[in-house]
Specification:
single chain; Immunoglobulin-like; 2 domains; 1 helix; 23 strands; disordered N terminus
Length: about 350
């Protein structure tokens, strides 16, 4: 008899911020008030997969995380809010309450660190510089960070935690050993290829609507114990090794805009010159809403009612192209001035 397989975990959601409501990275949560509660992930959704710690009392440890994105930007925005009865962050090294985030923008899976590599015969440092954090990234974030860098980028590309690829801000009013509420707001840029040679060779993960990405995080909880060991590793993935093997990350979907932020009908379009010598242009309708008709004015005295027309221009020039769409909600128009320029 084949062993029973574990049920598939539900796909989690990344909230889409409207382009006029992008969160300001200031360590405050007011920009996130528009995010529905259904996007919030709490400690109750996380696992102590080593089964050595009792579930914490929210009076001692309470976690709330929201993740967002903005269409057109290859960034993931995070709001991390936590309450602890004992914050441990006095040590200048890794002994620090931690929010550890791992992202795999194209879900290629596989090891982030040499410990989990398949080619065990490879030299450890060759492995470090060839694959450590290259196809998926691990951000070991200090909570709070005081007198130290905000995060350790676990890999050979520490540039990925700096501007413009990342930004961060925090708010807290407690001291080491005290209790209190903590807010961390940040964004990171996931990479399909994060070169150890620097950002010039890197390839950002392209974030698009409804795309599935790999993402997980862990909360590493210290309590000032004499042995210096953590007393909790709370993990969004059921696999403890997710921190070093991106195959074990949870699946998240980059969600469309929530209905209250969408226009009932909105004309949008793009184009690609597929043959400059023949002045052949393919037009792509990207309109939103229920559309029943399309009217393209190509700016040269000709038009089309196709949704995705291919048009050949007779003469060189700069053209004003207009798309007008109609549907039950009404009509919408978008013109682009001289974007289509042909020689």
């Amino acid at each position: 008899m084949m062993p029973a397989t574990a049920p598939a975990l539900p796909i989690l959601k990344v909230f889409q911020f409207p382009p006029n409501m992008i969160p300001r990275i200031d360590g405050k949560d007011d920009d996130w008030a528009i995010v529905p509660d259904s996007y919030t992930i709490t400690l109750a959704d996380m696992h102590d997969d080593e089964h050595i710690h009792a579930a914490p009392d929210p009076k001692d440890l309470d976690i709330h995380v929201k993740v967002g994105w903005v269409k057109g930007l290859n960034r993931l925005y995070f709001l991390y809010e936590a309450y602890k009865n004992y914050w441990d962050f006095a040590d200048p090294g890794l002994h620090n309450d931690t929010f550890e985030v791992v992202v795999d923008g194209d879900r290629s899976g596989g090891p982030l660190i040499p410990r989990f590599r398949n080619n065990a015969d490879q030299d450890e440092w060759d492995a470090h510089f060839s694959m450590h954090g290259v196809q998926a990234q691990n951000y070991h974030i200090m909570t709070p960070y005081e007198g130290k860098d905000w995060a350790m980028a676990w890999g050979c590309q520490p540039w990925d935690k700096e501007l413009p690829w990342a930004n961060h801000a925090q708010t807290y009013n407690f001291r080491p050993g005290q209790s209190g509420h903590y807010i961390l707001e940040f964004y990171i840029t996931p990479f399909d290829y994060a070169s150890c040679d620097g950002p010039d060779r890197a390839v950002e993960s392209k974030l698009t609507e409804n795309k599935l990405i790999g993402l997980s995080w862990a909360v590493i909880n210290y309590e000032g114990t004499p042995d210096g060991k953590n007393n909790g590793f709370w993990n969004l993935s059921p696999e403890h090794a997710m921190y070093g093997n991106s195959t074990y990350l949870r699946v998240f979907r980059l969600m469309p805009l929530e209905p209250q932020f969408r226009k009932p009908i909105d004309a949008k379009w793009s184009f690609k010159v597929i043959d400059m010598n023949r002045r052949l242009v393919a037009f792509q309708d990207e309109s939103e809403g229920q559309i029943t008709s399309w009217k393209w004015d190509f700016g040269d005295g000709t038009d089309s009612s196709d949704q995705f027309p291919i048009h050949q221009y007779k003469n060189a020039g700069e053209y004003v192209v207009v798309l007008t769409v109609e549907g039950p909600a009404g009509k919408s128009r978008l013109s682009k001035i001289w974007d289509v320029t042909l020689r």
